[in-house]
Amino acid sequence: MGKTSVLLADDHRIVLEGLRGLLGDEFEVVGTAENGRVLVEQAAKLRPDVIVADISMPQLNGIEAARQIKKTNKRVKIVFLTMHPDATYAADAFEAGASGFVLKHAAPSELVTAIHEAMKGRTYITPLVAGDLLRTYREGGSPEKELLRKTSPREREILQLLAEGRSGKEIASILNISPRTVEFHKYRMMEKLNIKTSAELVQYAVRHGIISL
Predict the structure, then answer these.
(1) Is residue 69 within 8 Å of 92, Cβ to Cβ?
(2) Are the C-beta atoms of residues 46 and 117 closer than 8 Å to each other?
């Protein structure tokens, strides 16, 4: 039986190289991606057993990328490696189909354990977040989070790109849609979220981890 194949995704090249060094002996690192959109493309092309991905990535965050990847490849295991200790990030990650959630400041062995657990069909969550995650599920989601769930994947993509400071024309080019369609999705989303200005959109995107400052 060959080595487990792993695709790495993080917007910092130094982190990618560190992960390659950490995992290279035990797993086959088949590729890397520095933004969420490239991650989706590489996942479709390389068909890895496991994806190790950050949450905060440009163009498309890791959670939205996971949702897209899982639609076309249900067998792939996704382990998030993130600096965010907030249980709401973990809840969103597992809702998107993740098998693991590990913090970047954890011991390297924890990531290796998470990958092995994922390959066995189990779920791994870093102990520092597990208790808070359980409380989050018990208490239910916030009203604001429920509003976000009513937005479409396309609307969330546009929200991230707008919050990153991209123009309607740039977004249209990235998503292969017309600028008019971008505006349509933007205003429909603002209605759903009860947001009046572009500045509020950016604040909303930061608050919900769609982008990070």
Answers:
(1) no
(2) no
Contact between residue 118 and residue 99 where contact means Cβ atoms under 8 Å apart: yes
> Which pLDDT belongs to residue 32?
97
Angle 125-55-96 from CA coordinates, rounded to 5°:
65
- Considering only residues 145 and 123, tell me which one the structure prediction assigns the higher pLDDT: 123
Question: Which residue ranges does the chain devote to CATH 1.10.10.10?
Answer: 143-207
82: β partners: 103
Does the domain at residues 143-207 carry the CATH identifier 2.40.40.10?
A: no
Instruction: Say what percent of the chain tops pLDDT 70.
Output: 91
Fill in the amino acid letter for 81: L
Q: Length of the chain in residues, anyone? A: 213
The confidence band for 13, taking pLDDT boundaries of 50, 70 and 90, is: very high
Q: Has domain 5-139 been given CATH number 3.30.1330.10?
A: no
